[in-house]
């Protein structure tokens, strides 16, 4: 299959492209290479599938510059959809879209889903909190793993490992009859406070969801079975057993 992948050098895209290239021909577009979806020239060739990951993420940052989130998550996506109106497009949405009134990031993802519904063959993937044993620098999981986290919250989050996420995307590539919007997560909410019991709890967190839990029944029906647990991983780390989550071995 000939696939166009936007955001192929990002946290998720850089892992996904390696998996896709095992069985497909993949063309990547990324802002890192100067390919701004708001202005760039799209490839002239046609594609069997587009996986659209590019965009702005981050709840707190969105309140500082909501216009940038609208431009990059909505306007850029519309430009992509209009360029390939007859191509199947699987795009990254977010669990934040369940409560679009909370912050500009959530609102941008909700509007993106509404926009995509006007096109005949789109699938919104509501990613929940994606993690790996090599998380994005400076983000929550990175600080948790390297011991620099200053506080926790009493929120519940659904953590999905990036390998499980890639598995889900591969399943959806084959299930090309599935449209609309669906959740991708573990289906198991975890209280942030329980990940680091010794840290102070911050209660005032405006703009953030209190509870997230992916409804993965539709994904399960397609054969999706999440394999990795953030709680089990942290337990192994605390015991000194570092798990290589890419092959399941203790190293």
Descriptive overview:
The chain has 251 residues and is of the alpha/beta class. β10 and β11 form a beta hairpin. The C terminus is likely disordered. The protein has a 6-stranded parallel sheet with strand order 2-1-3-4-5-8, sandwiched between helices. A 3-stranded mixed sheet has the order 6-7-9. The protein is 31% helix and 19% strand. The longest helix has 18 residues. It contains 8 helices and 11 strands. The relative contact order is 0.12. The protein has a single domain, classed as NAD(P)-binding Rossmann-like Domain (Rossmann fold), CATH 3.40.50.720.
Distance between the termini: 35 Å
Helix content: 25-40%
- pLDDT average, as an integer? 92
- From the coordinates shown, what is the CATH architecture? 3-Layer(aba) Sandwich
How many individual helices? Answer: 8
Low-confidence stretches: 241-251
Strand order of the largest sheet: 2-1-3-4-5-8
What general form does the structure show? globular
Whole-angstrom Rg: 18 Å
- Give the number of domains: 1
| Order of SSEs | EHEEHHEHEEHEHEEHHEE
Main sheet record: 6 strands, parallel
Structural class designation:
alpha/beta
Strand content: 15-25%
- The CATH topology annotation reads as Rossmann fold
